[in-house]
Amino acid sequence: MIKKTFLILLIPFISISQNIDTFFLNKGEVYFSFEYKNRIQLNNISDIVSIDHKTNAEIAYAYANRKEFENFLKLGVNYTIIEEKPLVFSSKSKNNWDYYPSYQEYVSMMYEFETLYPEICKTHNLGTLPSGREILITQISNKVGQKENEPSFLYTSSMHGNELAGYVLSLRLIDYLLNNYANNQRITDLIDNIDIWINPLANPDGAYAGGNQDVWSATRYNANWVDLNRNYPDPEDGPHPDGNPYQAETIIFLGLADTVNFTMAANMHGGVEVCNYPWDTWSNITADNNWWEFISREYADSCQANSGSGYFNYLNDGITNGYDWYEVDGGRQDYMNYFRNCRELTLELSDDKIPNPNDLPYLWDANFPSFLNFMEQSLFGLRGIITDSITGNPIEAKVEVLGHDIDSSHVYSMLPIGNYHRPIAQGNYNFTYSKNGYYSKTINATILNNDIFVQDIQLVPYNTTEISEIKKENKENNSYDLLGRPAKSKGYKISKKNKKLIIE
């Protein structure tokens, strides 16, 4: 088990009437623990503050900005302030990856990847924040910048700016993949068959809140003191569950998810060690709960097998349903699963939010095999290409599992290829393919774990006289930018209907 490195100062409970200015003299967030009586009370409090984690002893840990904390105080709940002191560690060697780069070093590394490996790597600036810091993402593919019949996969890290294990591990993963292409067969196969996207730092303003030179004064919230993992549209609680406008960081990732049809994703956090799978916002069990448990157990078991005793054994021996742990509204995991039909998992990688650099190689050894296994899962299940039976042109169609799919667990084929990818647990299923203007088609298939079942489908249009219009539609949709965005994209819209959000 990695030892805690945070220096903490405990301050006893104070009354509402006491001035709380002292808590916010140096930064706009406060970290504290509190006692709760039952799950209902905890869920109610989670609507007010940002729950970090909880123990089984009815003690929860949370962050709050000033407004959130003032609302929390009105509840009269016993709490203890935990003052996170800035950490100071000696600089280590980038060559050994026991090192947190400065912000400028990070930017240089990201663009250097593209410079050194231009045929398989492209670094995108998804957007520049008001601070001037960039949200950068590296795309790795054997035909980078080209659309192929392959799943797109996403790793992101550190949307909580003080949870930084995944920051360095993501950089190291990029480096490892690029260095081992054409030299390691498994790595070559992954890059040849998956469109890989890796964003090591989703909240640079939080990570470098103390300045661009180091991360030792990092904050959870962004520069506006908003928790980015409470700032997404929510399946149950609507477009703005936290009451804040969408932050620049959120808008950037909404745009990315809107333009790249990700099959699978993982979002790296820290503070405990566990795989957290959907849902976070409600007690509903996903249609693919067996699959989620299978891939989460694979991840956790591999971490345990490649580490010392005591690592990655929190909660159910390293895995948990999100809501069973504690409720999160406005989280990115549920957004990606519900609104983007992407299987996203939350990875809590370290008990320490900012691990001692000495521990980073240990964390890499423990997680690296799991990183590869998880990416590889995007290849498995049912996949294929859907086309018009008359023209042969690819079409965008819905793929759902009869008697199985609920809560947006279906997927879609996507232009310009018409390819679809449906991860699912082992079993026999009836898959239905449908699109307005076409006769639906149902096929039966037996899926095996860690195996690929390819099923190409042709759909027959109702009225063949409309073929010219179909051709016109396909032609208009065949122009894409570097991120895969259609040239005539309708953009991102959300509306509320029957207390559920739908994408227009």
Structure description:
There is one protein chain. Helix content is 26%, strand content 24%. By secondary structure, the chain is an alpha/beta fold. The protein has three domains: 10-82, 2-Layer Sandwich (Alpha-Beta Plaits), CATH 3.30.70; 111-377, Zn peptidases (Aminopeptidase, 3-Layer(aba) Sandwich); 383-473, Sandwich (Immunoglobulin-like), CATH 2.60.40.1120. The strands form five sheets. It has an eight-stranded mixed β-sheet with strand order 6-7-9-8-10-13-11-12, with helices on both faces. Strands 1-5-2-4-3 form a five-stranded antiparallel β-sheet. Strands 14, 17, 20 and 21 form a four-stranded mixed β-sheet that branches. It is globular. Residues 1-17 and 479-504 have low confidence and may be disordered.
Number of helical segments?
13
CATH architecture of the largest domain: 3-Layer(aba) Sandwich
In terms of per-residue confidence, which ranges show pLDDT below 50 for 5 or more consecutive residues?
1-17, 479-504
CATH superfamily of the largest domain: Zn peptidases
Distance between the termini: 47 Å
Largest sheet, in brief, is: 8 strands, mixed
Question: In the CATH scheme, what's the topology name of the largest domain?
Answer: Aminopeptidase
Helix content: 25-40%
CATH secondary-structure class of the largest domain: Alpha Beta
Secondary structural class:
alpha/beta
Domain unit count: 3
Strand order across the largest sheet: 6-7-9-8-10-13-11-12
